[in-house]
Write a structure and sequence with these properties.
The complex is a heterodimer.
Chain A: H1 5-31, H2 47-70, H3 76-85, H4 89-107, H5 116-124, H6 136-169, H7 174-207, H8 216-242, H9 250-278
Helix pairs in contact in A: 1-2, 1-5, 1-6, 1-9, 2-3, 2-4, 3-4, 4-5, 6-7, 6-9, 8-9
Chain B: H1 2-9, E1 22-26, E2 31-33, E3 39-44, E4 48-58, E5 64-65, E6 70-72, E7 75-79, E8 87-97, E9 102-111
Parallel strand pairs in B: 2-9
Antiparallel strand pairs in B: 1-3, 3-7, 4-5, 4-8, 6-7, 8-9
Classes of the chains: A mainly alpha, B mainly beta.
């Protein structure tokens, strides 16, 4: 396995930041009422600038690591000019860097709802870079949808977890949180279905077969699929076992839900760590 | 859940893509040709980036023969500006494929009138 660790780490922090920005900004649109109580607020606003700053810094590190990997006899500056001005990657990088800077400005505006559009476009950029870029328009579209759906789900878990924690502190909010949980659950089912369908399609386009556990790429992809299945398993348990018991055993259900949502987030971060390396690997090595 | 696993287990029969692979070379790898080639032509399995791709041609004595390249989508061509003397030549190629990965390789051919 030949993967640049710094490059993979930069991609991980970048994906993590943009997905949380997107998912948490999208969350109020489908999960909250306009009349929601103050305790049912989405992500605290001071977190957005930090995430946008992290996305900007690690996008730049990603670009520099990618450039360093290409610079042979010529220097970094000439190679960077070549990447940005004389290759097809340049367009994607110009769009990505512009959107990251726009996100940074918006994150300081105090209007998190404006984050949704640029963060969505930023995630869809992944359809035009990496393995998907070589697969034609179908590969690009499915990859863009795959990444955006993953961002909506994984990013939405953070405000959901904060709401559950708020309901644990304020029992009067339990009914409101139960409504939010049902809405998130319905939204999550659509997101998971899209992640699954687009993931299966991309696997078919890239490998043409089931991932082979005998090679590194196959093992890393199978590990990603295992993590995804674990997340779906937790989500199913939350929906059918815990949310249904909210009325009869609110305190106990909320406690277990809080722990499970935190666990889902940790597994989701693991999935992103996996794909950060997977995108750099040769499917046939 | 079971449906998810079952669907992912279905044998799929698509054409594997991603990462450029050399699919055709002119002259062919390990071939013997009577007439010196006027160009080295390589075709890859996916689009390549001209800016970060190239061909190095080495003569029987190991000396490099300067080659400029022209790239069009999946094809890379390097005109050979002078007539090659009899002997074994090595082609070292490197490309940056559309998926952003560097791939390189080499092969030999012999000119024997």
């Amino acid at each position: 396995m030949d993967v640049d660790g710094t490059l993979a780490f930069a991609r991980w922090v970048y994906f993590l930041s943009v997905m949380i920005l997107f998912g948490s900004a999208l969350f109020p649109f489908y999960a909250l009422d306009r009349t929601a109580a103050p305790a049912l607020a989405p992500l605290p606003r001071n977190i957005n600038p930090a995430l946008a700053l992290a996305a900007a810094i690690f996008a730049a590190i990603w670009l520099l690591c990618f450039t360093a990997g290409l610079s042979g006899r010529e220097g970094m500056v000439d190679t960077l000019r070549g990447v940005l001005m004389e290759s097809d990657f340049g367009t994607v990088w110009f769009v990505r860097l512009s959107l990251v800077l726009l996100l940074l400005v918006i994150s300081f505006s105090g209007r998190p709802e404006l984050i949704v559009g640029p963060a969505f476009l930023l995630l869809t950029c992944e359809g035009w870079q990496g393995h998907a870029a070589a697969l034609g328009l179908l590969g690009s579209l499915t990859q863009a949808l795959h990444v955006a759906s993953a961002g909506a789900w994984i990013g939405g878990l953070l405000p959901l977890g904060l709401l559950i924690a708020a309901a644990q502190r304020h029992p009067s909010e339990v009914a409101g949180v139960e409504t939010v949980l049902w809405r998130f659950s319905r939204f999550g089912m659509v997101a998971v279905a899209l992640i699954f369908l687009t993931g299966a399609m991309n696997t078919w386009l890239v490998l043409g077969s089931f991932p082979d556990p005998r090679n590194s790429y196959g093992r890393v992809l199978l590990f990603k699929i295992s993590l995804f299945v674990a997340m779906v398993g937790l989500a199913v348990y939350n929906r059918y076992a815990l949310v249904s018991r909210m009325k009869s055993e609110p305190a106990k259900s909320l406690g277990t839900l809080s722990r499970n949502v935190a666990l889902e987030q940790i597994i989701g971060f693991g999935v992103l760590m996996d794909v950060s390396a997977l995108g750099l690997m040769d499917p046939y090595a | 859940m079971i449906a998810t696993l079952a669907l992912w287990s279905v044998p799929l029969s698509g054409q594997a893509l991603a990462h450029a692979r050399l699919v055709e070379a002119t002259p062919e790898s390990n071939s013997t040709i009577a007439a010196p080639p006027t160009e080295i032509g390589l075709r890859f399995s996916e689009s390549i980036e001209a800016r970060f791709s190239g061909i190095d041609l080495s003569g029987p004595d190991g000396a490099k023969i300067t080659t400029e390249i022209a790239v069009r989508d999946k094809d890379m061509v390097a005109p050979v500006s002078r007539s090659l003397a009899p002997g074994v030549y090595q082609v070292d190629w490197h490309v940056l494929s559309a998926d952003g990965h560097k791939v390189k390789g080499n092969f030999k051919f012999e000119v024997r009138p």
